[in-house]
Amino acid sequence: MPLGTQIFAVVKRSFVSYWRTPDYMIGKFVLHIFTGLFNSFTFYHVGESQIDMQSRLFSIFMTLTISPPLIQQLQPKFLDFRNIYQSREANSKIYSWVALVAGAVLPELPYSIVAGTLYFICWWFPALGRGATPFASGYTWMMMMLFEVFYVGFGQMIAAFAPNELLASILVPLFFLFVVSFCGVVVPFAGLPYFWRSWMYYLTPFRYILEGWLGVAVHSRPVRCAPNEFARFPAPPGQTCESYTQGFIAQAGGYVNTAVDGICEFCQYKNGDEFAKGFNIYYSNKWEDYGIVWAFCIFNFIVVFVASWLYLGGTKSIARLFHSKAKKREREMQKANKEA
C-alpha cells in the first residue's frame, strides 16, 4: 500500500477517534477559556502607567505558563496511539511508523488552533488589546497560533522519548524549567549570568514568543507615570528641569515634568518601546521572531518522527547495520589471513 494512502487512512481514523471521544477536546477548550478569562480579569483593561507596562509583561508570561498542563493533557493520546501500534499493528505490518506519527500529530493541530483562538478572544481584548491597532491584534493572534503548534510539537517530542506516561509527565517540568527560566522575564537579560546569557538565552523559544508579543503590545504606547512613580528632585539654580535632564534623557530615555511647586518629576519611560528595551525586546524583531518560532516548531516535529523511529525499531536497525559491518570486516580479515 502506498505511503500516502497509509497516512490518509490513519489520519482519518485518528480524526474519527478524536470526534468519538470528545472529553479530551472539551477539556482542552475549557482549559483555554478559563485560563484566558483568569488572565484577562487579573489584568483587566491595563492602563498606560509604568506598572501597567509591567502588567502587560506578566500577562504575556502567564500565557506562556499554560503550556505544561496542555502538554501533559496531550501526551497520553500520543502514547496510546504508539502503544496500540507497537502491540498490535506493527506486527501485522498494516501501515508504517510514519503513518502512525502523522496520525498522532495532525489531528491535534486544528483543535489546538480553535482552542488558541478561544484563549485569544478571552484574553487579548479584555486585557491588553484595548486601544491596540488591527495589526497588533492580528500579529498577536498569529503568534498565538504558532504557540499552539509549538507546545503540541514540544509535548509530543518529549513523549516520543519516554517509554510511558509517568516518565513523560516527569520530563515536562524539567524541560519547561529550562525553556522558561532563560526567556528574560524571571531574570531580565542584563541580570542573567554571562554563561547562560551567551547561549541559553538564545536557545529558548519562549524568548522569541515573548519578544514578538510584548514588542507589539507596547509599541508606540505612551507611558504616563502615576504620581507615586515619579522621581522628584529640584533643578539646580539657573536651570530648568528640561535643560538639567536633557543629556540624561537623551541617553537613558524617559521624560520630565515640572510640578506646580517647581520640583522636577522624572518618569523612567517615555513610551512602551523604552520599557521593552530594558528587557532586550525590540519591536523591529517581530517578523524575525515569528520565523524563528516556526523553525522551532519544525524542529520539534522532526524530532518527534526521529525519536518515534528510534523507539519503534530504529535502534535495532542501527545496531544491525554496525553488526553487519563488523562481521564483514571480520570476514575480510580472516580471508586476508588465510591468503597470507
Number of strands: 3
Mean pLDDT: 90
In sequence order, what are the helices and strands, one letter per element? HHHHHHHHHHHEHEEHH
Spatial order of the strands in the main sheet? Answer: 1-3-2
Query: How much helicity do the residues have?
Result: over 70%
Radius of gyration: 27 Å
Number of helices: 14
Describe the SSE topology.
Layout: H1 3-20, H2 22-42, H3 50-64, H4 67-92, H5 97-105, H6 108-128, H7 134-161, H8 165-181, H9 194-197, H10 200-203, H11 205-218, E1 231-233, H12 241-252, E2 255-258, E3 264-267, H13 272-277, H14 286-339
Antiparallel strand pairs: 1-3, 2-3
Word description of this protein:
The protein is mainly alpha-helical and 340 residues long. Helix content is 73%, strand content 3%. It is built from 14 helices and three strands. The protein has helices at residues 3-20, 22-42, 50-64, 67-92, 97-105, 108-128, 134-161, 165-181, 194-197, 200-203, 205-218, 241-252, 272-277, 286-339, and strands spanning 231-233, 255-258, 264-267. The chain is elongated.
